[in-house]
Design brief:
Helices cover 32% and strands 31% of the residues. The chain is of the alpha+beta class. The protein folds into two domains: 96 residues, Immunoglobulin-like, CATH 2.60.40.10; 33 residues. The longest helix has 27 residues. The termini are far apart.
Amino acid sequence: MSKWKYFIICLLILIGLNLVLLRSFATLAGNKPTDISISISDGAMTTNNVLVNITISAKDASEMCFRNGTEVGEQIANWTQWEPYAKTKQLYLADSVNNTRYKIQVKFKNAYGESNITSDTIFFMVDTEEEVPEQLSDTFIITCFIGFILIGIVVIAIIIDIPTKSKKKYFPD
């Protein structure tokens, strides 16, 4: 073989080794965040609080951001600003519409890139049942009775046209 063929073969081997080494060093240098998770209100299915506790986890994360909103038509708000990674966070449910399912999404990042998006959902439901008295009070019944009698007297006076002093004063016969 000629010297050039040896040179080209050695050059290709060196290039191949360099590519393998570069890939190895990139793996050793770091990865974007992995093993990501989110849980709203300790995994509860429903809440009646507009402020919910979020538990989050991500391996190798340095920052995180969120977005949340209703699942109806995927009306999810814009992403929040990036903030330092923490394992817990409190967030307000966007718009807090009663009897609505909310989705909170989170993503993480570090110097090597962003993670995938992960999410959890919770149903926001305000307890609107009010105590209704079993019986109406006697005072309420008497007040209503007197009110209806007074309204009846006024209506009857208008219907039978009871003359008054003021009517004669302004509208003489």
